[in-house]
Amino acid sequence: MPQFKREVIAPLHEKLTLTLAKDEFFPKVEQGLKKLAKQVSIKGFRQGMVPAGMVRKMYGNDVMAEEISKLANENLDNYIRENDIKFLGNPLAMPVLGQSTDINNPGDYTFEFEIGLQPEFEIPALKGKDAVVSYQIIVDDELVQKEMEYEQTRHGKSEETDTIIADD
User: Most exposed: 61, 96, 103, 133, by fewest CB within 10 Å?
Assistant: First the structure.
């Protein structure tokens, strides 16, 4: 289970820290490597017959980084949805120094995200039904006809003609 820590930086500004343990993501990394081994084509080997050690050495760090990133984004989305966090924009991933993806020496990974929260506000004029004025607009055939004529002259098309008549 991923661990989340929520810190208030400023009003309407928070930092979420997500920690992923090795046993949460490493099985998915192994599955990704097995899937890749069936698809990869390396000179000297038939497709799908590349030794697992070679695939791990050549593509292991990339597969691990991809799986960790995917898992971090899924967990962040789930946390935001479960805790009903109303935020503005998108969470911003903050750079975390000192972490590298090494398939031979995996450890726990920490991600930090900054989010801007939606402010709570009320519009007093909308509280009572009498506070908002509502207008009933009556559209008659004459108004519709005038509007149609206006739009026809405004969006008319140009044509070559030999004669000019009224309303051209």
Answer: 133
